[in-house]
Amino acid sequence: MAWNQFLAAFAALFLAELGDKTQLVVITMSASSKRPLAVFLGGSLALVLLTGIGAIAGEAITKVIPELLLRRASALLFVAIGIWTWCKA
Predict the structure, then answer these.
(1) What is the per-residue pLDDT across 49-84, written as a single tens digit (0 to 9) for each?
(2) Domain ranges of the chain
(3) Are 30 and 39 in contact (CB under 8 A)?
(4) Three-state secondary structure along 10-65?
């Protein structure tokens, strides 16, 4: 296993999701359902499936689009979403 990539992905996702709306939804669902294990398992499965789709799509996309262009397009999209969110508030 490529431990550097594993640890980088873990750290990036852990920090990105900390306090994110996904975590807030899980907190709310656990509080309202009183079934934290079911919410944990459902949320974990959803995150695993979405991460798998992202990993597969990422590999497939880089066969068609150069990685540098993909990184720049992603950065621009994040900036655009940030500006849109800022202006909308």
Answers:
(1) 999 999 999 889 999 999 999 999 999 998 999 899
(2) 3-88
(3) yes
(4) HHHHHHHHCCCHHHHHHHHHHHHHCCHHHHHHHHHHHHHHHHHHHHHHHHHHHCCC
Lookup: tokens for 33 = 């359902």
Which tokens is 78 given? Answer: 């994040």
User: Could you give the CA distance from residue 78 to residue 74 in angstroms, rounded to a whole number?
Assistant: 6
Q: Which of 17, 41, 16 is nearest to 29 (CA)?
A: 41
The confidence score (pLDDT) of residue 22 equals: 85
Q: Is the pLDDT of residue 40 over 90?
A: yes
